[in-house]
Design goal:
about 55% helix; about 10% strand; five-stranded mixed sheet; alpha/beta; single chain
């Protein structure tokens, strides 16, 4: 029978959706991330025992005093075993998934109960959703939504929805038909029948479905830990991949406590909200006799007061007891985030946590994620992971590199001369090469113990090595994890039993055990790999300082193995403590690996002074003003910035309220202001030449090249020119000189402001619509869009301007050092465009971060702009 290509069709469908619906997935990712972040912020805010108290009050309100005591003890135990943060992350994920599931599933169940056709369509869909292995949902989830909590949330919603739909449908169908007929006979509207008769009577069944949703969601959240979802799932995955019994027991116990709490609370909630449940509860309490106090539950108002009081206490503790943690050794990163991914192999874990510590000391906020090789490369190609440090190239990870190399950057080799091999204990005297394995499968039980199935070494072993040595039919490669392989190796060596394992060099196992690397005379494993640092595409441009550090990163075998051993001694969950202990034995290594870019700025002669700097909301004005703010702060000044329209700024300069600005367009565009106030001002000097002001149109408007052409195509542009701030010289000159000279008086010139003009340009450009905008050079818009500057054959825009710094007349005397720096300051077009781009990328409100990124990419620029003797 011919093969039905279901897998290929599914793969093609996923590829098509990835290519054509990326905007939808990005929107869903943004919404779900925001929802999760909000809930997590609320739950993670209070101290653990305060939140445990709030959970206990809820349990008291729903189930009574014994449940409250057990709840507090259970969550206190989670805090004691250091799984609190992970538990809160998992609880947040469960709540987000369950809220969305219930909002969708209950209406679907009602619809299915009221329409047999809808029920018939939904039933096979629900069967598919419920019986598909849970892990399968993560594959498209990672491809559509990347790594992190979002694929976990989406997969959880899909996996946990069927019970809620089915139980809602079942509950409503089971309502006595005579009751429904009676309601209809009295003229009750169908909606009121649903709300007043069917839903109240079906509520116990619906609540049972919701309970199942929560339980399935929690089980799926644990599975989602393999996709970088974190939380308890991440702890379980880490314990499995490292065969860590301690971590597995603690994470598993935390899952049990959380699951029991959610199960009991949702079950008890039915008794509070359902009339039938309240009746059953009253009967149960009446039968308790003298033990009633154990089942006494506070009124809703009293429980609410208790929760509010604890919440206020938590808020007060958070406000007054904030601890910013240990200070960074320097602030090169300014709090920017860098995400580090790693496969849970010793060298990857060691170098990842080493770089986590280094980046924290340099003022960054690094995040680490442990992943399988496949999700790691896929996530990095999507941009979810910034850097990984244990890419084995060119052999082990060859397949992933070929697939994703266009979306990755090779930051260089940090360790060379590696090898892949099969190793056996040295007490197996007759085994020296892979040829010797032939015919001895019975000795090894027909197995070679492997590692993670997605590892490149496993693919090479199965696809090349076994075939090269004719071992394919004789041996089976057993997929496991690195930690499982090492545990099996340890167990076999203790019992002096035969074992063959996949291994590699460097690895601490060769120091701990007496092993034989089986020779590979046919070279099937390849010639050996190098360990590479890989960045996502664009990482070097976004974080040039970090990329520069990593390009120069090297460790020798002694350093690497001692770092691995230090981390093993510290134990799982304490990796950074192991790194810090190792760094103490290697003083000065952090400064060597990551030389700080901002720890030794000399103070200026006028340090402490606070100049008032004004700027208009123009890109070059914003960029240069924040650049000088950053430079002055490094020199010990305390500059104050004032964002003003052009007219008020020049007025402020003349009166001395503003000391200086860097965005004066002279001699033409701001001529009127200069002529009006020049007796109170000083022209400090130009820092940028060869500017121009113009009207620009998209280049796809083919027949408009000059201002004369614009007049002829007035209707095509809707009779509008999109302008900027009304007080600017460009707008005044357009209306007074340019428009009359070219017969453009019939055009409406809108005063949208610079940001409004750029937004309108982006909208029109995206739709390929004609648009004419007031623009100037230099401007980053010419890099982002393909635009035509309309020629001005009559020269109505006037001569080219230069951009100059303008100060109040007293500025040179009050700030002589700063004045001297500005007089000698120049910027090239590339420098200005790069600075504007970095600030644009950082986003509004993060201008300082964008400037610092640009400074990091231009070492020595502070000393060049503001030299101190």
């Amino acid at each position: 029978m011919p093969r039905i290509q279901i897998g290929s069709w599914a793969s093609d469908a996923v590829d098509w959706l990835t290519n054509h619906a990326a905007w939808l997935f990005d929107f869903v990712t943004h919404v779900l991330n925001g929802f999760y972040t909000g809930i997590h912020a609320v739950l993670a805010g209070p101290e653990p025992l305060i939140l445990a108290g709030i959970f206990a009050i809820i349990a008291w309100w729903l189930r009574g005093l014994p449940a409250a005591v057990l709840t507090f003890l259970g969550f206190a135990l989670i805090d004691s075993i250091e799984q609190w943060d992970e538990t809160i992350s998992s609880l947040s994920l469960v709540l987000v998934a369950c809220i969305i599931t219930i909002v969708v599933a209950v209406p679907l169940g009602i619809w299915a109960a009221r329409s047999r056709a809808v029920g018939g369509v939904l039933r096979p869909v629900l069967d598919l959703m419920q019986t598909m292995p849970a892990m399968v949902y993560l594959i498209p989830g990672i491809l559509f939504f990347g790594l992190g909590v979002v694929p976990g949330i989406v997969s959880t919603i899909v996996f946990s929805m069927p019970p809620a739909v089915r139980m809602t449908e079942l509950g409503i169908r089971q309502v006595d038909g005579e009751l429904v007929e009676a309601a209809e006979a009295f003229g009750t509207h169908p909606r009121r029948t649903l709300l007043r008769v069917q839903l109240p009577l079906a509520l116990p069944t619906i609540m049972a479905g919701i309970n199942q949703v929560i339980m399935l969601a929690l089980s799926m959240v644990v599975i989602a830990g393999t996709a970088g979802g974190g939380g308890l799932g991440g702890s379980v995955y880490q314990s499995l991949s490292s065969v860590d019994v301690k971590l597995g027991a603690e994470a598993g116990l935390s899952v049990v406590i959380l699951a029991v709490y959610l199960d009991r609370m949702t079950g008890a909630l039915n008794q509070r909200v359902s009339p039938l449940g309240r009746r059953a509860l009253a009967k149960a309490q009446a039968s308790l006799g003298g033990m009633k106090f154990l089942r006494w539950k506070p009124a809703t108002s009293l429980a609410t007061v208790g929760i509010v009081v604890l919440a206020l206490v938590a808020g007060g503790m958070g406000y007054f007891g904030k601890n910013s943690g240990p200070a960074a050794a320097s602030n090169d990163g300014h709090g920017r985030s860098v995400t580090l991914g790693y496969v849970n192999w010793d060298e990857g874990r060691a170098t990842t946590f080493l770089w986590k510590e280094i980046l924290e000391q340099r003022g960054f906020k690094p995040k680490v994620q442990a992943l399988e090789a496949g999700p790691l490369f896929a996530g990095q190609a999507r941009g979810d992971i910034d850097v990984q440090s244990n890419a084995w190239l060119p052999t082990t990870h060859e397949a992933y590199w070929k697939q994703y190399k266009d979306k990755l950057e090779d930051l260089g080799t940090w360790y060379d001369k590696t090898s892949l091999e099969i190793a056996v204990p040295s007490y197996m005297k007759d085994l020296k090469s892979l040829d010797d394995l032939k015919g001895k499968s019975g000795t090894f039980g027909g197995k070679i113990i492997g590692i993670e199935p997605g590892a490149g070494e496993m693919k090479i072993l199965k696809d090349k090595v076994l075939k090269a040595y004719d071992l394919s039919g004789e041996y089976k490669v057993q997929d496991s994890t690195t930690a499982s392989m090492l545990a099996e190796l340890d167990r076999s060596i203790r019992a002096k039993k035969p074992i063959a394992v996949t291994l590699w060099s460097p690895h601490w196992a060769y120091d701990k055990y007496d092993l034989t690397k089986l020779k590979d005379p046919k070279g099937a494993f390849g010639s050996g790999d190098s360990l590479h640092m890989l960045g996502r595409k664009g990482f070097s441009e976004d974080e040039p300082l970090v990329a520069g550090w990593m390009k120069n990163f090297h460790l020798d075998e002694g350093q690497l193995t001692s770092l691995e051993n230090a981390m093993k001694d510290a134990g799982n969950g304490h990796e950074q403590e192991g790194v810090r202990a190792w760094l103490k034995k290697n003083p000065g290594l952090v400064d060597k690996l990551a030389p700080s870019g901002n720890t030794s700025y000399a103070k200026g002669k006028d340090a402490g002074k606070a100049p008032d700097i004004g700027y208009p909301a123009w890109d070059e004005g914003i960029a240069t003003t924040y650049l000088w703010k950053n430079v002055l702060e490094k020199r010990g000044y305390r500059p104050k910035l004032h964002n003003l329209d052009v007219g008020p700024m020049w007025t402020g300069l003349s009166t001395g309220q503003i000391d200086v600005e860097t965005d004066g367009w002279l001699p033409v565009m701001q001529k009127q202001y200069w002529e009006k106030y020049q007796k109170d001002l000083v022209d400090i000097g130009p820092w940028y030449d060869k500017t121009s002001v113009e009207i620009a149109v998209p280049s796809y408007v083919k027949d408009v090249k000059t201002l004369d052409d614009l007049r002829k195509h007035k209707d095509e542009f809707g009779g509008k020119i999109i302008g900027i701030e009304p007080g600017t010289g460009a707008m005044k000159r357009l209306k007074s000189t340019v428009a009359p000279a070219y017969g453009l008086d019939g055009f409406q010139v809108t005063s949208a402001g610079t940001s409004g003009m750029l937004a309108e340009l982006q909208r029109a450009y995206g739709k390929k619509e004609p648009i004419a905008v007031v623009l100037w050079s230099p401007h980053w818009a010419y890099s982002k869009y393909d635009l035509t500057k309309l020629k001005d054959p009559k020269g109505t825009w006037g001569a080219e301007n230069h951009i100059t710094s303008v100060g109040n007349k007293s500025f040179p005397k009050e700030f002589p050092e700063f004045h001297g720096w500005l007089k000698n300051w120049k910027m090239t077009p590339d420098e200005l465009n790069g600075l504007e781009k970095d600030i644009q990328d950082a986003g509004k409100g993060n201008e300082d971060k964008g400037v610092q990124k640009w400074i990091d990419a231009h070492p020595g620029i502070v000393d060049k702009m503001a030299p101190v003797k």
